[in-house]
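Annex B.
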Amino acid sequence: MLVLTHSDELNRTYGGENGGPPVTEPDSTSERQGPVSDMTGCSSWSTGFKETRSTLVCTGARTITLTSAVSTTDWVKSTTSRLEEMKYSDVHLQKMSGGTEEQSGFDQSRGNRDRRENTEGQEPSDGTVHFSESRGDGGKGGTISVDPSLRPTITAWEAGWNVTNAIQGIFVLGLPFALLQSGYMGLVLLVLSAWVCNYTGRILVTCLYEEEPSGMSKVRVRQSYQDIVEACCKGFWSSWSGVAGCVVNVAQVMELLMTCTLYLVVSTSLMSDCLSGTAVPRSVCSLVSLLFLLPCLLLTDLRPVSVLSLFCSLAHILISLMVMLYCLSRSSTWSWFTLSLSVDPEKFLVSVGVIIFSYTSQIFLAPLEGSMEDRGQFNAMLAWTHGAACVMKTMFSLLAVLTWGPETSEVITDNLPFDLRPLVNLCLLAKALLSYPLPFYSAAEILQSWLLTDPAALRYSKHRSGGVSCSALLVRGALLTTSLLVPRFSLLMGLTGSVTGSAMTLILPCLFHLRLHWGRLTLRDRLIDVGILSLGVVCSLSGVICSVKRLFNLGVET
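Vesicular inhibitory amino acid transporter: predicted structure tokens.
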């Protein structure tokens, strides 16, 4: 059953036009108010908001409501037309009923009440999609309402800064060494990896949507990685869909926890280097870094995270410029013979993993796209951020390898002169601390929505109170403490990351795309998905083998 409710249809019904039945004088006040009361909640509108149009799609026990905003020009035209029709309707009712004052007073009070309800219960948002999911259980089931408009939205620029924060992380410092190990093929990998990660990010977000029966538009019916996994399991392993969702949540939290751990370890190391002349213990530096990160416990939406990501990106640009300018100053010593066409297979596989995973942002994309004011700009934002990152990483890595050649260190800052290194380390410290909030916020959101309560109710309570509940604060505190203790198991976490990282970035997005959109994919799209999926499996296996070898060598040494 498909019910389309539009403002123009409501106006025609209210005005009694378009061949509708004539309005007759009711016998009583209640009968005279009946048709007007029925309109309440269906055509309530307010001049302070853009007009919205709702589509109700009912299939069995599932109901999805889509509400989309209308452009300002169309809204003005529609509003003018509505005012004329309502004026004509009021005059028509007055002539036929004879109760002019009573009916007019009632209509005015009804309109005022509708305006108050509309003002209190809605927020203007272009392209906002409202979902109403109801499950029928013989009349006993409840209704779960998810209203994404309750969550503060971010612009495409703010989303871009968050993506830039993710793909321009601390891993960039190891790219010159990875390029040295992979030779000229590494230059191709730097460009190809940007395209691959941009592609998997786009298809992952595509899996959040389903096409309407008309095929003219798409509706966002899923909100997270977990929802996509559960949708893919339906029809094959329906009884295991919940378990699969839990496994994906665990993998996401582990991946984000490792990222948080990396930033905390790097911050401690950089602070220790900056204070090396004062003989400050490393444990004190770790505690100071933790104190700087305590405000992350109070983050409740992506807007402050986006601001921190902006400053993080500015710090990264400053670091890259300082290193590249120094390399350009030594251009007379460059040697193109440093890069070779023949590479060691094992070193090449390690370099592939380092380069590809320096572009990973897929784990953040679902909530970022869902929080955007204009979701139509998501693909363009993703393309621009990955394109800019590709240019910056390629120039940064190539100039460093040409400058230092075979002496290029695993962390490029170790090659810098001593007079420049303190300034770069200070900027890196700021970058590491500013990079921490994004993965921490994402991990906290996953844990809260998974362990505490319904995600919609959780977002609504945060929007209303503007704070963090005690239970949410407990989860965030446990997460922060865990990231402080995890470095004791760095090799084990590296082994796990080889699986979760490649799965989240390359394997799962392609599997989801093939499973949910197989019938709409061309042969070219299917081949691309299969190729990227195979690349993800190779990266995962090579990472596991290298990590196991390191664990084995460590055991032999001890």
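The chain has two domains: 2-16+50-117+125-146, 158-557. The two ends are 69 Å apart (CA to CA). Further annotation is deferred to the next reporting cycle.
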